[in-house]
Design brief:
This protein is low in regular secondary structure. The chain has a domain at about 20-100: Pectate Lyase C-like (3 Solenoid), CATH 2.160.20. It is built from three helices and two strands, in the order ββααα. The protein has helices at about 75, 105-115, 120-125; strands at about 5, 30. Strands 1-2 form a two-stranded parallel ribbon.
C-alpha cells in the first residue's frame, strides 16, 4: 500500500529578506522518494511514515518536524537544518550543524564538567 503522493513547487524569492512559504500540509506517509526539497520550509510538518529515500534536503528546514517513522538515511538528513524539536528515527542523529547534542554527548559534557581540571584552583590544589 503506497503512501500519499505529494508534489511540491519550491518558491524562489528575488528578495532575500522574504522567507519561503511554510508548508502547512500534513505529509503523513507521503511518497517523497527522490523529491527535490532544496530550501523547502518543512517546519513542524508531520512527515511521519513519509518515504524520503533519495530525497534532496539541501537547505531544507526541518525544525520541529516529525520524522520519527520516516524513511531516510543519515546522509540524506545531513544537508538539512533543524533543531532539538525535530523528531528523528531512533537510528538517526541530528547532524552536527543543528547544534543538538545526543544523550551520549550530553552525558560526556556533564562528566567532563565534573573533572578536577574544571574545578576552581582552590579545590584542585588541595593535598
Amino acid at each position: 500500500m503506497g503512501g500519499t503522493r505529494a508534489w511540491f513547487a519550491v518558491a524562489s524569492f528575488e528578495n532575500p529578506l522574504k522567507a519561503p512559504a511554510r508548508a502547512t500540509t500534513n505529509l503523513f506517509r507521503a511518497d517523497l522518494m527522490c523529491a527535490d526539497l532544496t530550501g523547502a520550509d518543512l517546519t513542524e510538518v508531520d512527515l511521519s511514515g513519509a518515504d524520503l529515500s533519495g530525497a534532496i534536503l539541501s537547505g531544507a528546514t526541518l525544525s520541529g518536524a516529525d520524522l520519527s517513522t520516516a524513511s531516510l538515511t543519515q546522509e540524506e538528513l545531513q544537508p538539512a537544518t533543524g533543531d532539538e524539536n525535530a523528531r528523528l528515527p531512533a537510528e538517526l542523529n541530528p547532524p552536527a550543524n543543528w547544534g543538538v547534542k545526543t544523550d551520549e554527548q550530553a552525558k560526556e559534557d556533564w562528566a567532563h564538567s565534573r573533572t578536577s581540571e574544571n574545578l576552581p584552583s582552590t579545590y584542585s590544589n588541595r593535598k
